[in-house]
């Protein structure tokens, strides 16, 4: 262990003198967390709305007002015909077009079966989905309001089943509550993995590794000495990140933060070890960097933060069984938002522990003191 | 200076290294006695560095037999490492650590006690006249000083053998002379010095010199003996005489 300590001391000294790397380790993740968390917004406001009103009735006007009262829509054009509105969609002046057909009011009052048409620009399908669901809920609410109870009674219609959703664990559907823990572990993984990826191979490029390889240092001591300094850096980043999550983003922390810490300490060893494995198998920093990027991009894009894993094809879901980010994001959300205990998250924790052991065993095995 | 066996501190018997079809080191045999300064000469590409890397446990040999400090090169490479020092042709102390930090680091890796490290560091800096530079980053030292420091660090844990791979490349004649003073001091303390060089004046300083051509040792004797053998008056001529016949010259 004494040998490991000397290695750690050396790494820390080198780190202290490398201002850029130090800033990257200590400041960059905090900035990224703040910026990305504010930017990763699944709420859309000020959608541009064009209207084709072929009815010119008070009922149509009232529904249009309802659209304008929300922060989601902004009326940009009123067109006499669908053709003109199509041009608005094409040119990008409008995100969606609301068409009131002739006799909209009459149908509404008589049969309660009025129709409006919604044309949505679906180039961006997330935006389109949100636009149409916002619009639909406004229209439905309006329909419920104007349709006289007597009409419903007269036609003998049973009032339709209404689903009242109760959003547990994130009652306000606050996207930050959902995103911040995920973004935090993602950023930390990225940075610690890059740092270890570049570390060993850099010593190879400079030539200092050879001097180490003629010493009696053990392979596990070497890997451990390279891992521990950045493990501490990762936990530091996590500490700051949690403080920001709590006090800047008001992410609820229902469960045990100490438990999450302990699990994070285990998780961090996975990206750190993977970086060391790549680094000890690479000959140049450039090579190492590209290999690390290959893994990181897949891990990050498939981790479920941007596309729910349930929507992914079977092969991607199968891959995610070995994606450490999937486990830690899931665990972080469950502990913070739901108050899960160790027993609840034991399965994913054991999986992470297994990965940590495996990846680092491979790193020790792959690090060669003797070539040929 | 613990060695597991009395007798030669380095012994090679038909030591061979092949990379695919290419034989870099071709069945070399020699023995080096404790305290000897052994010159290992040869043109670029003759196989010197490959042979040295095998003896240091940095490269696995293909066949033959070899032992260093009493440990087998094939099976006990890691045991060898505790008993040797090594200085590569590529300068390899940490440029972003200070003189003192570099010494402390290597002392620690070799398992020296903290108090011993401190004491030996003071003595070493005094010997090198680097006391004022103890907290200077190694990267900002002149090359000659760096080389002397690297040599001293390679000897810091009192190894039985020190391997020097072209240690004086690129330094001025005065510094080279000073470097050789350090080598003589070490040899006088009983350290075996195994050195490769391209400077024929340095070859003259060695107790014995071997000359490698195309992976084979073509000549091995005291400098005076070699000159006599080839009927010439300088080591330069000995070297040229042998190296001219080489096939693998860079």
From TrEMBL, chain A:
The protein's name in its UniProt record: ABC transporter permease
InterPro entries per UniProt: ABC-2_transporter_component, ABC2_TM, ABC2_TM_bact-type
Domain of life, source organism: Bacteria
Residues that span the membrane, as ranges: 21-40, 178-201, 222-245, 257-277, 289-309, 345-365
PANTHER family xrefs: MEMBRANE COMPONENT OF ABC TRANSPORTER YHHJ-RELATED, MULTIDRUG ABC TRANSPORTER PERMEASE YBHS-RELATED
Keywords: Cell membrane, Membrane, Transmembrane, Transmembrane helix, Transport
Location(s), subcellular: Cell membrane
One Pfam entry name: ABC2_membrane_3
GO molecular function: ABC-type transporter activity
Domain ABC transmembrane type-2, chain residue ranges per copy: 139-370
Family designation: Belongs to the ABC-2 integral membrane protein family.
Membrane topology, from the record: Multi-pass membrane protein
One cellular-component annotation, GO: plasma membrane
UniProtKB/TrEMBL annotation, chain B:
Gene3D superfamilies: P-loop containing nucleotide triphosphate hydrolases
Residue intervals of the ABC transporter domain: 10-239
InterPro entries: AAA+_ATPase, ABC_transporter-like_ATP-bd, P-loop_NTPase
Any one GO molecular-function label of the UniProt entry: ATP hydrolysis activity
Entry keywords, A to Z: ATP-binding, Nucleotide-binding
Organism superkingdom: Bacteria
Disulfide bond in keyword set: no
Pfam families xref list: ABC_tran
PANTHER family linked to this entry: ABC TRANSPORTER G FAMILY MEMBER 20 ISOFORM X1 (PTHR43038:SF3), ATP-BINDING CASSETTE, SUB-FAMILY H, MEMBER 1 (PTHR43038)
Protein name: ABC transporter ATP-binding protein
Organism of derivation: Hymenobacter properus
């Amino acid at each position: 262990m004494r040998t490991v300590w000397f290695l750690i001391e050396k790494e820390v000294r080198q780190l202290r003198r490398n201002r850029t790397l130090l800033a990257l380790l200590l400041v960059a993740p905090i900035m990224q967390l703040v910026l990305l968390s504010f930017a990763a917004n699944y709420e859309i406001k000020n959608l541009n709305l064009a209207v084709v009103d072929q009815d010119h009735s008070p009922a149509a006007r009232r529904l249009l007002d309802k659209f304008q009262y929300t922060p989601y829509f902004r009326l940009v054009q009123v067109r006499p015909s669908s053709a003109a509105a199509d041009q608005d969609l094409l040119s990008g002046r409008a995100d969606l077009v609301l068409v009131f057909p002739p006799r909209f009011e009459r149908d509404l009052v008589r049969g309660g079966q009025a129709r409006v048409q919604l044309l949505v620009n679906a180039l961006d399908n997330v935006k389109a989905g949100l636009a149409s669901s916002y619009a639909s809920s406004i229209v439905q609410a309006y329909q419920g309001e104007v349709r006289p109870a007597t009409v419903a009674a007269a036609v003998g219609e049973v009032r339709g089943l209404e689903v009242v959703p109760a959003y547990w664990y994130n009652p306000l559907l606050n996207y930050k509550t959902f995103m911040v823990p995920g973004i935090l572990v993602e950023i930390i993984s990225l940075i610690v993995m890059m740092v270890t990826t570049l570390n060993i191979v850099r010593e190879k490029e400079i030539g200092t590794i050879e001097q180490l390889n003629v010493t009696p240092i053990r392979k596990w001591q070497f890997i451990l000495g390279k891992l521990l300094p950045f493990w501490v850096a990762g936990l530091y980043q996590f500490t700051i990140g949690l403080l920001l999550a709590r006090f800047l983003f008001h992410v609820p922390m229902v469960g045990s933060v100490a438990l999450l810490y302990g699990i994070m300490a285990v998780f961090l060893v996975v990206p750190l070890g993977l970086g060391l494995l790549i680094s000890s198998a690479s000959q140049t920093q450039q090579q190492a960097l590209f290999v690390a990027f290959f893994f990181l991009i897949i891990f990050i894009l498939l981790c479920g933060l941007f596309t729910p894993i349930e929507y992914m094809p079977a092969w991607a879901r199968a891959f995610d069984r070995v994606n450490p980010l999937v486990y830690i994001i899931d665990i972080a959300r469950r502990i913070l938002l739901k108050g899960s205990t160790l027993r609840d998250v034991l399965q994913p924790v054991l999986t992470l522990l297994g990965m940590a052991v495996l990846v680092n065993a491979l790193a020790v095995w792959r690090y060669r003191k003797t070539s040929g | 200076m613990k060695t597991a066996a009395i007798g030669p501190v380095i012994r090679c018997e038909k030591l061979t290294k092949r990379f695919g079809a290419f034989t870099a080191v071709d069945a070399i045999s020699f023995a080096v006695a404790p305290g000897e300064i052994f010159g290992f000469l040869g043109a670029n590409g003759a196989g010197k560095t490959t042979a040295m890397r095998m003896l240091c446990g940095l490269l696995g040999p293909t066949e033959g037999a070899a032992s260093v400090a009493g440990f087998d090169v094939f099976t006990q490479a890691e045991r060898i490492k505790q008993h040797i020092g090594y200085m590569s042709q590529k300068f390899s102390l940490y440029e972003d650590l200070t003189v003192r930090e570099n010494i402390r680091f290597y002392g620690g890796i070799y398992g020296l006690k903290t108090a011993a490290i401190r004491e030996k560091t003071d003595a070493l800096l005094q010997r090198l006249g680097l006391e004022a530079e103890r907290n200077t980053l190694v990267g900002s030292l002149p090359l000659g000083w760096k080389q002397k420091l690297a040599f001293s660090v390679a000897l810091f844990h009192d190894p039985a053998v020190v391997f020097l791979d072209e240690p004086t490349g690129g330094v001025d004649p005065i510094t080279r002379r000073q470097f050789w003073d350090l080598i003589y001091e070490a040899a006088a303390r009983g350290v075996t010095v195994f050195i490769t060089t391209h400077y024929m004046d340095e070859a003259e300083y060695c107790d014995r010199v071997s000359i490698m051509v195309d992976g084979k040792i073509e000549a091995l004797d005291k400098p005076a003996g070699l000159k006599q053998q080839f009927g010439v008056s300088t080591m330069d001529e000995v070297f040229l005489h042998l190296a001219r016949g080489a096939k693998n010259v860079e």
